[in-house]
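Work Package 3 committed the consortium to producing structural models of liganded targets before the mid-term review. Because experimental data for this complex are still outstanding, the team generated a predictive model from sequence and the ligand definition alone, so that downstream docking and mutagenesis planning could proceed in parallel. The input record is reproduced below exactly as it was submitted to the modelling pipeline, together with the SMILES string for copper (II) ion.
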Amino acid sequence: MTRNLLNRRQLLITGAAVLSGHTLVRAHNGTVHVTIDKLAFLPAEIQIKAGETVEWTNKDRFAHTATVKGGWDVLIPPGKTATHVATVDDTVDYYCRFHPNMKGRIVISA
Amino acid sequence: MKILVTALGTACLILSASIAGAADKPTDPQIAHIAYSAGVIDVEAAKLALSKTKNADIAAFAQSMQKDHEAVNDMALALVKKLNVTPQDNATSQALAKAAEEKRAELGKLDGAAFDKAYIDNEIAYHSQVNGALETLLIPSAENAELKGLLETGLKLFQGHQQHAEHVAAALQ
Ligand SMILES: [Cu+2]
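The resulting structure, written out as tokens with the ligand in place, is given here.
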């Protein structure tokens, strides 16, 4: 009974996290993967530690970039991957220079 | 600014005229033709810009337009082939082509900074016009789910182009 309740509660919590759309993706083996599909960064927000790598996989037929205003700029050609090694000050909003309606966010965790 | 307003006014006139002319909503073969023609027009504009401009930002923008519109038109061709649909010419496609031809002649007479400004202002107006048509007419009228899906991707792409053009225009000032 207690165990059932606990399981149910966990299920609800998981469901809520998915619904909120703020499911932060954590790094596996030091790399966080972001997929670009139909002009969207998926997931739009990632959490990463300084020194770990963000890897974008572009599934579109169009070239995109991950660009930080006044900061770094990564070109991601169609069908290719590109990476950026996160630094301590990389809690940033980024966008695509070619399609500025594409937006993403990186949060540096301690 | 006055040029932009005029261009937008013209764009709205053309669209409302062609929508009013065809009281019925466009069919999938007509929609495919309109979307494809809209892409070809922007590729032509990009080629003109690449042959004339000396501005690095304008050239980079034009290159990006050429590549993106060619890519999305390749996707459209593959889709109509798969669906066994033959794109059908229609009043809206013809109005778009006629307006584009006039604009190309107008831009062809300009050089240097005057060309750059007129080109990028027209890119903003043109993408805005096409996005309006996609949102209010083409996407709602599309029957086939895959065609609708491609038009929706096209809308996101062209909205991105419009914002990109706005950034380039702002940097020219
Ligand atoms: Cu992009």
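Reviewers should note the following from the model. Confidence is low (pLDDT under 50) at residues 1-21 of chain A. These observations will guide the Year 2 experiments.
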